[in-house]
Amino acid sequence: MAIIIKDNVFTLQTKNSTYQMKADDKGILLHTYYGKRTDETDYSYMISMADRGFSGNIYEAREDRTYSLDFLPQEFPVCGSGDYRVDCLHVDLGAGVSDCLMFFDSYNTYHGKYSLEGLPAMFALEEEKVDTLELILKDNQEELYLHLFYGVFEEYDIITRAVIVENQTNREVRLSRVLSACLDMDHDGMDFIHFYGRHAGERELERVSLFHGITELRSTRGTSSHQHNPFVILAEKNTTEELGECFGFSLLYSGGFHIQTEVDQFHQTRIVIGIDDSDFSWSLQPGDTFVTPEVSMGYSNCGLSNLSHCYHNSFQNNLIRSSWKNKRRPILVNNWEATYFDFNADKLLEIAKEAADLELDMLVLDDGWFGKRDNDDTGLGDWFVNENKLGCSLKELVDKVNHMGLMFGLWFEPEMISEDSNLYRSHPEWAMVVPGRNPIRGRSQLVLDMTREDVLTYVKERLFAIMDSANIQYIKWDMNRSVAAAYSALLPRERQGELRHRYVLGLYHVMEALLERYPDLLLEGCSGGGGRFDAGMLYYAPQIWCSDNTDAIERLNIQYGTSFGYPMSSVSAHVSVCPNHQNGRVTPFKTRGICAMQGTFGYELDLSKLSIEEKEEARKQICTFKKHYRLFQFGNYYRLTSPLENPDFTAWEYVDKDKKEAYIGVVYTNLHGNPAAQSVKFKGLCKESIYEMWKNQEPAGTYTGAALMNGGILLPIPRENYDSCQIYISRKEENK
Ligand code: DGJ
Question: What are the two backbone dihedrals, phi and then psi, of residue 620, each rounded to the nearest 5 degrees?
């Protein structure tokens, strides 16, 4: 077992990391170690104790003025304990103030992985080495319990955490903040890496030095958001892609979140992460529990690439459940940028005909097929096929598409309601609007109250009815605004603070019901592009539309940032038309293909308008993706250059897990007269093996793995703006 317990010291061992806690003689659960794998020594000897001014002492410390929670490293710090740093729990036990003090009570361990009711959580596959530790803490006066869960994924250097708060008192307990995890480190000087952005510009990496004080990221938007991502990294100053220690924190949650770091007066660093607590309160009735979302913590002592691999592999194996996870993802054509709202069945079939000719796998019909929906002002909620617009039934359209040899996918935005819709006319109370106030509109639409049973029943009934009416194998689940001034007509005044979390639970409930009924459905997440790109969503949707920005060059940044915390098989990316619809840039068709092949590949343009040359290039792209999909979906992904640091080109690599083959994509972002030579070095190969190389499909020599990794390869000189190239190598023995 990966969990070793001795004298109230709890040591969790993964392949390369050790995590340790200790219930001390007072019963406080201290955090004693997280880092490079070590032995089970009780590391509390490293904690320095002193009588520190203005650091109060808990009553249980008696005369000992050196014992203060104001500086001790703790596993789950709570408000009201004399710890003035950012904490994890604010609970009102009845006095009207936040006050509790949690002491170690007992523990459980078992093989396998805990699950969380109603929430996404990583799981263990049979035969896998995964263990669970549950630590139970109790308030020193009241029957309030905390169950701290730890899932130890030995192979991946991943430790998951979640908390259940249990009210065993005989009265209501009010929670105003319950985060999922805290990590205390005994030093400062760390870098904080996070991924900020905006609509059409998501997940841009920023690396900052932590300073004395609090740094915080949060989304108050009801979704994980375009603006910040619930995945962050703490890294030592000298950590690079290949060297150094780093710690990842990924929240498996699609609603608002809150991440804070604090460097304290004694140069110690703390990070806390969990549900957004602005506008949050929860009434916990006697006997009730509150379950927090899960945090997946990753560790690497050999740089950021390795940390990404921990997340890529563990999410691919132990978070994504879809029956599609091990299959080649369909290469699809989506009609959104091809037609927007202006289509009928004939137009769609014209695109489908070209798609079939190019040997694509699927046609996806995007927004505008239902209710009265010829622009984005109307119709949301009326999930009835607009046969007048299509010119036939959905089944007739789907049958024709299937007959051409293509699968069919459909867009929905189930959480929304337009004021100009039959649904709103019959159920205005289903929109989350504060009574007597004017609504805050976003893209002219309102948000459905996903906390209501009747709303969930309606949404499921409509989704199922459309699904049952035709052979639909894929759904793109969109969400096109942020939640604002939200109110539920069914929750009493004092429980409105529960709305945002209950909303997320309602969303997960519908997704779960959909997947239970249609286990082979491929669900693609979307929120105006990548506004809900989080690990929670991956539990339901193995791929997520990465951004509404389809410009290949801006996508280099977006996909680069996304790659740190999420497997590339989850990054949905399409070739679109030029000039690009978002920024007007013109890039070669080939380059657009190479960028889209960084993730799950597809097209989003009117295929019937492609030139003969573009069609030829598309054929090559489709052939390349089909041939190398195992590398793209399951290979180890390396960022060879950073688009934020290298102005001339961006390069990335996929290496097959057995090191038999590898692929490098390169996109040039600058041109020079009389250019200097440019080169890249392969990573992750077998140094003794001999590899044959092809540059842009042309044979380009034979090299040892050592030469490719240490000497590198010269890149072709770019011939036009935003030129690109593909380099493929295969181990010589495999080519016999
Ligand atoms: C936003 C999505 O990100 C787009 O791809 C498209 O589906 C539109 N919504 C449709 O309204």
Answer: -65, -45
What is the phi/psi pair of residue 10, to 5°?
-110, 115
Minimal-distance CA residue to ligand 1 atom 10:
367
* Known catalytic residue at 534: yes
Instruction: Choose one of 342, 377, 480, 605 to mutate for the ligand 1 pocket test, by most ligand atoms within 8 angstroms of C-beta.
Output: 480
Q: To test ligand 1's pocket by mutation, which of 334, 524, 548, 605 has the most ligand atoms within 8 angstroms of CB? A: 548
**Is 366 a pocket residue for ligand 1 (Cβ < 6 Å)?**
yes
Using alpha carbons, list the distances in angstroms from residue 423 to 379, 411, 433, 472, 506.
8, 18, 15, 24, 19
- What single-letter amino acid sits at 116? L
Distance CA 533, CA 548 (A): 12
291-340 confidence digits (pLDDT tens): 999 999 999 999 999 999 999 999 999 999 999 999 999 999 999 999 99
Q: Is the CB of 480 under 6 A from ligand 1?
A: yes
Average pLDDT of 2-31?
98
| Atom 9 in ligand 1: residue holding the nearest Cα | 528
Asked if pLDDT for residue 733 goes beyond 90, the answer is no
Give the type of residue at 264.
D
For the chain, the C-alpha Rg in angstroms (whole number) is: 27
- Ligand 1 pocket, 367 CB below 6 A? yes
Can you tell me the mean pLDDT for 78-91?
Answer: 97
Distance 244 CA to ligand 1 centre (A): 40
Query: Which pLDDT tens digit goes with each residue over 578-624?
Result: 999 999 999 999 999 999 999 999 999 999 999 999 999 999 999 99
Predicted local distance difference test score (pLDDT) of residue 735 = 61
Query: With 0-12 CB in 10 A as exposed, 13-18 as middle and 19+ as buried, what is 302?
Result: middle
Catalytic status, residue 354 = no
| Phi, psi at 75, each rounded to 5° | -85, -35
**pLDDT per position as a tens digit, 222-280:** 999 999 999 999 999 999 999 999 999 999 999 999 999 999 999 999 999 999 999 99
Closest ligand 1 atom number to CA of residue 548: 3
The owner of tokens 């249990």 is: 166
Helix locations, 251-324, DSSP H: 303-318
SS3 658: coil
The verdict on the CB of residue 529 being under 6 Å from ligand 1 is yes
Categorize the per-residue pLDDT at 127 as very low, low, confident or very high, splitting at 50, 70 and 90. confident
Enter the pTM of the model. Answer: 0.98
Both tokens of 487, joined, read 């109110």
274 lines ligand 1 (CB under 6 A): no
- 427-455 pLDDT, tens digit each: 999 999 999 999 999 999 999 999 999 99
Choosing from 354, 534, 554, 604, the catalytic residue is 534
